[in-house]
Design a protein that fits this description.
Helix content: 25-40%
Radius of gyration: 23 Å
Distance between the termini: 66 Å
Structural class: alpha+beta
Keywords: Membrane, Transmembrane, Transmembrane helix
Shape: extended
């Protein structure tokens, strides 16, 4: 996994249950890219089950902001805030730069940022090793809550229709 992450803005950190893949906000070579990215930093927590050759990926998004660095006058440092979202998360942002030429706007640059880039790397490595991906706990809980909500909505609509057909609203 570390070899696959080389040359990318991601860093791999071992954990008790597997490893994390996150943006290397402490590596100054990626700061220009991170400053242009949207204000989110994704960490992919990967739980590895070697016996079953499976991985479970839980995405965690934190807000990435920039503030003046007190150690270096006039320079900015990245700070991850406390706002967090977890589960299977996706996001894409597009940043376009325009220049005014005469009376017309002309696009001079476009950059797309995909928050699930680290997840893609993990999936490629797992697939190359013949491993499978399983849903993480946060994703399974979200699916159950969504299904319970959908069933509750259907039951409510059916109950309202029965009351309406029986003349209960008349």
């Amino acid at each position: 996994m570390r070899r696959r992450a080389e040359g990318t803005p991601y860093v791999v950190t071992e954990t008790e249950s597997g490893f994390d893949v996150s943006l290397a906000v402490e590596d100054e070579q990626w700061w220009p890219l991170l400053r242009r990215a949207d204000a989110s930093a994704m960490t992919h927590h990967v739980a590895v089950d070697e016996g079953q050759e499976t991985v479970r990926i839980t995405d965690v998004v934190r807000t990435l902001t920039w503030r003046p660095d007190p150690r270096r006058r006039g320079e900015m440092e990245p700070v991850l805030s406390a706002g967090v979202a977890a589960g299977r998360l996706t996001g894409r942002s597009v940043s376009r730069t325009y220049q005014l030429e005469g009376w017309r706007l002309h696009q001079v640059a476009e950059e797309t940022t995909d928050l699930s880039g680290g997840r893609t790397i993990v999936r490629e490595v797992a697939r190359d090793q013949g491993w499978l991906e399983r849903r993480g706990a946060a994703e399974r809980i979200g699916l159950v809550v969504g299904l319970v909500g959908a069933v509750g909505a259907v039951v409510t609509v059916v109950a309202l229709l029965v009351v309406w057909w029986s003349g209960g609203f008349g």
